[in-house]
Amino acid sequence: MFPNRTAHGRFPSVHPLVVALAALLPLTAAAQDAPAAKDPVALDTLQVTAQRRVENAKDVPVSISAIQGEKLDVLGSAGDDIRFLSARVPSLNIESSYGRAFPRFYIRGLGNTDFDLNASQPVSLVYDDVVQESPLLKGFPLFDLAGVEVLRGPQGTLFGRNTPAGVVKFDSARPSQDADGYIKVAYGSYNTWNTQGAYGGPLTDRWSARVSALYQRRDDWVTNTRQGAPAQGFEGYDEAAARVQFLYEGDDVEALFNLHKRKLNGTARLFRANIIKPGTNQLVENFDRDEVSTDGQNFSDLETWGGSARLKWDLGRVTLHSITGYETAESLNHGDIDGGYGASFLGAGNYGPGNIPFASESADGLPHHRQWTQEFRVESNEWGRFDWQAGVFYFDEDVTIDSFNYDSLTPGNPQTGHAEQQQRNKAWAAFASGDFDVTERFKLRGGVRYTQDKKDFSASVLQAVPFGTPVSGPYIAKTDVNDVSWDLSGVYQITDNLNAYARVAKGFRAPSIQGRLAFGGVSQADSEKVISYEAGIKADLFDRRARLGFNVFRYNVDGQQLIAVGGSNNTATLLNADKTIGQGAELDFEAYLTDHVLLTLGSSYNDTEIKDKDLAVAICGGGCTITDPTTVIDGGTYALVNGNPLPQAPKWIHNLTLRAGFPVNDASEFYVYTDWAYRSEVNFFLYESPEFRSRSSLEGGLRLGYNWDYGQYDVAVYGRNLTDQVRVVGAIDFNNLTGFLNEPRTFGVEFTAKF
To answer: 299 and 267 in contact (C-beta within 8 Å)?
Structure first.
C-alpha cells in the first residue's frame, strides 16, 4: 500500500484550546468546593526506565513523556489502534496507509513514510524489552499496560535497533504474588465493541502468572455506491490479542516468560478518489465520508505471535540480565489504490466521485517472517559514585515479501503481476554506559555502542506486470556497515526540586534496500547518522502538586534516508538527502489545580528543513499544484525539494487533558475528563503542493463517569472526535487527487470492574 507523508505548518490559532479550557472552568470551581482530601494531594513520583534502570524521571537527562493509568485508558476507550497516541505527547506523530496494520512513527519530525514491508524506521518500538523491528509488529494492541514512555532524541547506546529519532517503549503489567485483575467492556458507534481483561496471582510461593486478553470489532460504516463491486462496505475490523506471563522469583534469580499473539481481520486503508478540491487542501463540495465509489477488492489480514524470556541473576556486586525474544508475522493487505472506478478522465476541472485516469489495484503480503533477538547485559549494584552497565546484542531477521497487481477493469479482478523480495538482516552490537557523581549535585553520564549490520537482499519478477518489469531476476543487493554511536550528558541539581540537564548524542540507522520491481526497480539508501543536542530543566513544584519538563533541541542528520513515492510513473525510490536539520522546544506539564482537578499539558515546536540543492523527486501524476522549483531530467519533470520540511513533521503539537472529580463520599465520585490534541499542517510528500498539505487538526474527547467502592467499579459515557472534524491525513499522488481520512466521531458507554 501507499504511505501518507507530511511536514510543516504555521503557528496555530490557540483559541480552540483556550475555549476548551475556559468551558471547564466552572467545573474546576465546583470541584474545588468539594470536601478537601484528608491528606495533601501530590503527584506520585514518575518512575521511568529510560536508562534501563528504574529512576525518577527528573533525574534522567533525556526528554521523556509518559502515559499511564487512567489517561491511557481514556485515550483508548473507543477501540482505536496505536495511532490514538499521535500528538498525545510532544513531538510524536503516528500515521498509516495500511490502517490498523502498519503504523509509522515520527519523533521531532524524523520518521519514514516508506510503505514497504521491510521498511526500517528511525523510531524504535520496544515492547516488554524486545525491539519490534518489522512495521507489522509495531501495531500490537495496547492493553493491560503498566505504562508507555516516549524517549526523544537518539537512544542507540542502550536500545538495540535503529533509534536515531527516539524510542516508544511499552511495558505490560507484570505478574505478582498479589492476586488482582480487571474486566472492561465498552460499546459504541458503528456497533463497536472494545473488551479486555486480565487476571494474575500466585501459582506457588515462587511462581506467579498473569493472563491478559483483548477483543475489538467494528462494523463497516462506509458504503460503496459502485454497484456490483467486490467490496460493498469498508472501515470495519475484527481483532483479538492475548498475552500470558509467568514470573519466577527466587532468592538470587528472577525469570519472566511472555507469550503473546494477535489476529486482525478487517479492511485495508480506504483510498477515496477525487476528494481534494484542486488548488486547495479543502474537501470537494458535497463530500460524504459515509460513501465511496470504488471497484476493487479491500481486506487486511494479519497474524503475529511471539515470546520472550527475561532472566536476571543477582551476583552480588553486579546483576546479569538475559533477554531473548522471538517474533513472527504473516499478512496480506489488499486495496484499491486508485480509490475509484473505471479509467476515464473527465477533463480539467471535472472530478467525478470515483472516475480515475487509470486503474491500480495491488496487495502486499508477508508469507514468511521471523525475528530473533538476544541481549546479555551486566549492571553494577550501587558502586558508590560510579555505576555502569555493559553488554552485547544480537539481531537476526528473515523476511519474504510478495507484491501482487490486479486488473479491476476485468470481472473477477484477475491477478496480473507478482514480484517477490527476500531479505536476511543480521546485526550485533557491544555497548557500555556509566554515570559518575562528580559532586552530590552534579552527575555525568556517557555511553558508547559499536554496531555491525549486514543485509542480503534479492528480488524477482515472477509474473510480469502489464506496465512494469517483465519476468526477470533475481536482482541481488548486499550491505555491510559498522558504526559507533555515543552519548554524553550531565544533570545538575539546582535545588532539591529543580534539575537542569544537557545532552549530546549520536544516532545511526543502517542502510535500507527496496525492490518495488513493478514501480521502478531495486533502490538502496546508505546509512543515516544524527548528531543531537538538547538542554532542559525538570522540576517538582508547589510541594509536588505540579511537575514541569522543558527543553530545547537541535539536530543534524547526514545522509537521511528518504523515500520518493508516486509521481506519474508511480515509482518508489530510496534516496539519501545530503543533510537535514531540525530544531525546536518541548514542554510537559502536570498539576493538581485543586485537590480534585488534575491538568496535563504538552506542547512542542519542530522546525525541520532538507538541505540538499540537488535533491529532485518526481511530481504528482495529475491534478496538483507544485509550488517548488522544477527541473527536467530525462524528459520528466522533477521538483527540487531543497529547503522543504520533512514529510509528516507538524511544526506544532499541543495536547491537554483536564479531569475534575466530584466526591460523593470517601469511596465514590462523579468525574469529568476531557482531552484535546492539536497538530499543525503537514505535507504528505517531499515536494510541496497545496492539495497534498493536510489542514491543521484539533480533536477532542469527553468522558463522564461515576466510580465507586474506592475505584473498583467505573461506568462512563464517552465521545471521541467530538467536533466530528474531517481531515485528509494521507494521499496518493500518481493518479488523481486521492486521499484517506481520520477516524470519525464516535460515542459509547464503558464499564470497568477491578478485582
So the answer is: yes
- Residue 524 backbone dihedrals phi, psi, to 5 degrees: -145, 145
- Please give the pLDDT value at position 409: 85
Residue ranges in the chain modelled with pLDDT below 50:
1-37, 345-351
Helix, strand, coil % (nearest 5) of the chain? Answer: 5, 55, 40
Encode pLDDT of 585-641 as tens digits: 999 999 999 999 999 999 999 999 999 999 999 898 878 999 999 999 888 889 999
What residue has cell string 494474575? Answer: 200
Q: Are 662 and 643 in contact (CB under 8 A)?
A: no
Question: CA quadruple 124, 105, 646, 453: dihedral positive or negative?
Answer: positive
Chain CA centroid to CA 721, Å: 19
Cα separation, 204 vs 283, in Å, equals 61
- The DSSP call for residue 122 is S
Q: Which residues pair with 366 in a beta bridge?
A: 331
d(CA 101, CA 118): 14
Cα–Cα distance, 641 to 629 (Å, whole number): 8
Give CA–CA dist 607/556, Å, rounded.
12
Which sign does the torsion angle of CA 136, 137, 143, 148 carry? negative
DSSP per-residue string spanning 418-471: EEEEEEEEEEEEEEEEEEEESSSSEEEEEEEEEEEEEEEEEEEEEE--TTSPPS
Q: CA-CA distance, 730 to 1, in Å (whole number)? A: 12
Using the structure block, give the residue that is written with the C-alpha cell 490534541: 677
Instruction: Single out the residue of 558, 552, 468 nearest to residue 507, CA to CA.
Output: 558
Cβ density class 47-63: b for 16+ within 10 Å, e for less: ebbbbbeeeebbebbbb
CA distance 236 to 238: 7
Say what the pLDDT of residue 734 is. Answer: 80
Q: What is the pTM of this model?
A: 0.92
Euclidean distance between CA atoms 448 and 508, whole angstroms: 12
The alpha carbon of residue 271 and the mean position of all alpha carbons in its chain are separated, in whole angstroms, by: 21
DSSP 518: G
**Residue labelled with grid coordinates 503557528:** 11
Mention every residue, 6+ apart, whose C-beta is less than 8 A from residue 321: 310, 311, 312, 375, 376, 377, 378, 379, 391
Question: Which residues have C-beta within 8 Å of that of residue 410, sequence separation ≥ 6?
Answer: none
The residue among 210, 406, 149, 132 whose CA lies nearest residue 296 is 406
Residues 570-579 pLDDT 10s: 778 899 999 9
End-to-end CA distance of the chain: 43
Give the three cell numbers for residue 418. 507478482
